[in-house]
Known about the structure:
Blueprint: H1 3-12, H2 16-22, E1 26-39, E2 53-67, E3 72-83, E4 91-102, E5 106-113, E6 146-155, E7 159-166, E8 194-195, E9 205-214, E10 217-227, E11 232-235, E12 246-250, E13 252-264, E14 267-277, E15 282-294, E16 303-313, E17 326-335, E18 343-351, E19 357-367, E20 371-381, E21 398-406
Parallel strand pairs: 8-12
Antiparallel strand pairs: 1-2, 1-21, 2-3, 3-4, 4-5, 5-6, 6-7, 7-9, 9-10, 10-13, 11-12, 13-14, 14-15, 15-16, 16-17, 17-18, 18-19, 19-20, 20-21
Amino acid sequence: MSISKFILIFLLGISSCQANSIFSDIDISGYAAIDLRWFLESPRLSNQKTESLYPSLELKPEFQYRWNNENDSLKLTPYLRYDALDDNRQFFDIREAFWLHRFKSTDLRIGIAEVFWGVTESRHLVNIINQVDSIEDVDEEDRLGQPMVNLNWFSSDWGTYEFYLLPGFRERRFSDREGRLRLDNLPVDQDGATYESSLKQAHVDAALRWSYILGEWDIGVSHFYGTSREARFEAQLNPFGPPQKLIPHYDIIHQTGIDLQWTHDSWLWKLEAINRSSNETTFQALVGGFEYAFYGIFDSNIDLSILSEYLWDNRNQKAPLTPLDNDVFTGLRLAFNDQQNTELLLGNIIDVDNQASLISLEASRRFMSSWKISLDSKVFLNVSNKNRALSAMRNDSFVNFQIAYYF
């Protein structure tokens, strides 16, 4: 079954039942959603759009075909976002499109894929394979598909070894002059990006990871070499006035990371730490903390978890900008354990130095077997002009409502 056949099904837009009657050997799943993003305040910058409500459509189907006793499979996951008002959020991407072959103790994957590394809640320092889709949200959870050749070897005695060749670097997406949730007061010139490597986007990156489960411990050690997924910015000089825009620059980096999780009774202790070096600078960063669960509170089916993490980063001005250099995250998670899979996560990241705060709320509930309603909110508090990483967003607190149909 060819990739073109998958794309044909997607373009036809037929339902999973109809598709299975025609191509009974293809598994089709995914969701289609309607979103409404409501910005709670007027924009801070005069050239930004002034609308408060931004309706959009989201489509993420998944097509999978298996053969050879399921030792071979093809997977295609296209992604479409169409925003009625914001051109930045009119976007199509291939999140995944790969062939996977399973040997006895080895997997080989070739194509475009998503890879997740990490254990902490507030920030995933070691998760470096895929580029961040920063237009979708500010929490860096959404990622772009990454071309790769991936070989995984599994051993019950020695753990799991992952090897990656990563051709085709993907630049980070930023809001333009009119967009909300801008990185800086100056717009980013995405078409003018510069690179340390003369090969630019054609540079082939490489990564490897070893992971192992030792009793109550989950251990991961990784190393990445290639083009940084984070850009540092240089202001484009204007001889007749102030700078007009920011030019993103992507360095070649080495990043070594470790992720640890200790599971003991009701406790989850978590740590992610990295060392990143380039020709310009070397810095270290870590996120560490715990999650403690109270099961069946008030003699119900509801589980309550308390989360707390500390975020530290000692990068200097020669490194990409980050607001998370000396911060504390606290959160509450409610899992209702009902048929509707009702969940709620409330979190707050506060800067120890200046008390700038980002409050987040994520809640979801299924209904009518195939539908799901979600609420996602980000609120910025106490952000001053001196906080360059967040000052442009300080009026961009929002609530996002979504109704999704899963098929």
